[in-house]
Design goal:
The chain is of the alpha/beta class and 305 residues long. The chain has ten helices and twelve strands.
Length: 305
C-alpha cells in the first residue's frame, strides 16, 4: 500500500510532484507488483494524537507560526502558512496506514509523506521535520491497538535524534538507527543506549562516510538477526531515508539503488517471523530528485513481492 497526500512536497533542493513519484514507483507490474498496491486516502492526525509525542506547547506554537504566515523554526526548518495542516496529514497518513495494516492480514504499507519526521523532538521541530510521524504512529499502535512491543528501524543517512529522544526511557519501543557519524544532527554515537527502563533499547550503529555499501548491509543483517528478531516486536516501522544513496547531494553512504530492496527483504523476513508481516514504512530523507523514485521503487518492490 502506498500513501498520497498532495501534488507537491517541498525538499531542500526543489519540489517534486507526488503523482509523478507514485506513477514511477508503481509503473512496472512485473518488477514491483503494482497491481497489489492500493492508494490510501489519509486523514489528519488529531492534536491529541500528535500529543502522544509532542508537547501541547510546541503544537500550539507551530500552529501560531503558520497562522501568522510562516517563518523558521531553525535555520534548516522553514514553515509556510500551510505547514501545520500538511504536517497533520503527514502524521495522519501514517496512522491511516497502521489501521489498514492491522486490519489486513499479512500486509504492509509505504507512506510517501512530507514533511519528514525523525528529527522532530518532543518540544520542537528541526532538520526539515515538524511532527515525528513514525514516533507518533508507534505510540498510536500501542494506545489504540493494544500492541505491546514496537521496533523502529531508521536507515536514513542522518541519526533519528527525535525518535531516540521520544523513547529514550522506554523498553516497549526498540529504536535502531544506522547513520553517518559524526554528522548532522551530532547525536547517534554507539554509546547512546537509553536510560532507566529504556537502557539497551536504543541501538545506534554509526558509520563513517567512506564505509562501503557491503559493510552497511553486513551490519544491517546482524542488527536484524541479533537484535530485532530476538526482541520479537508486534509491529515494525521503517524510517525510510534514501539520502544514504551514493549520489545524494546531502551526504550519501555509498548505497546502491538495489540495496534498498535488500534492506527491505531483511526487515520483511523478521516481520514475517515475529509480527505477521506487519510493517509500515514512512519516507524520511532523500534529495536526489532524479533517482529518488528508483530508490523508492526498489524498496516498494521488496515490500509487495
Amino acid at each position: 500500500m502506498a500513501y498520497l497526500k498532495r501534488k507537491k512536497w517541498f525538499y531542500p533542493v526543489r519540489s517534486i510532484d507526488a503523482n509523478t513519484l507514485i506513477k514511477s514507483t508503481t509503473s512496472n507490474n512485473t518488477s514491483n507488483g503494482a497491481s497489489r498496491v492500493t492508494l490510501l486516502e489519509p486523514r489528519q492526525a488529531s492534536v491529541d494524537e500528535i500529543a502522544y509525542i509532542h508537547s501541547r506547547e510546541y503544537i500550539e506554537s507551530l500552529k501560531a507560526v503558520t497562522e501568522q504566515g510562516g517563518g523558521y523554526l531553525d535555520g534548516d526548518t522553514p514553515v509556510s502558512e500551510k505547514s501545520y495542516e500538511v504536517a497533520l496529514y503527514a502524521a495522519g497518513g501514517v496512522l491511516t496506514a497502521v489501521d489498514k495494516v492491522i486490519a489486513t492480514p499479512k500486509s504492509n504499507a509505504l507512506c510517501l509523506v512530507r514533511p519528514p519526521g525523525h528529527h522532530a523532538m518532543p518540544t520542537h521541530g528541526m532538520g526539515f521535520c515538524l511532527f515525528n510521524n513514525v514516533a507518533i504512529a508507534a505510540r498510536y499502535a500501542q494506545n489504540q491497538h493494544g500492541l505491546k512491543k514496537i521496533a523502529i528501524i531508521d536507515w536514513d543517512l542522518h541519526h533519528g535524534n527525535g525518535t531516540q529522544e521520544a523513547f529514550w526511557k522506554d523498553d516497549t519501543v526498540l529504536f535502531c538507527s544506522l547513520h553517518r557519524y559524526p554528522y548532522y544532527p551530532g547525536s547517534g554515537s554507539g554509546q547512546e543506549k537509553g536510560v532507566g527502563p529504556g537502557a539497551g533499547f536504543t541501538i545506534n550503529i554509526p558509520l563513517a562516510g567512506y564505509d562501503s555499501n557491503k559493510e552497511y548491509l553486513d551490519k544491517f543483517a546482524r542488527l536484524m538477526t541479533d537484535v530485532v528478531r530476538p526482541y520479537k516486536p508486534d509491529f515494525i516501522f521503517i524510517s525510510a531515508g534514501f539520502d544514504s544513496y551514493k549520489n545524494d547531494p546531502l551526504g550519501g553512504l555509498g548505497m546502491e539503488i538495489s540495496d534498498y530492496g535488500e534492506l527491505t527483504k531483511m526487515v520483511r523476513a523478521v516481520a514475517d517471523e515475529t509480527c505477521q508481516g506487519r510493517i509500515v514504512s514512512a519516507l524520511e530523507g532523500g534529495y536526489n530528485i532524479q533517482e529518488l523514485p528508483l530508490c523508492i521503487e526498489s524498496h516498494l518492490a521488496a515490500l509487495v513481492s
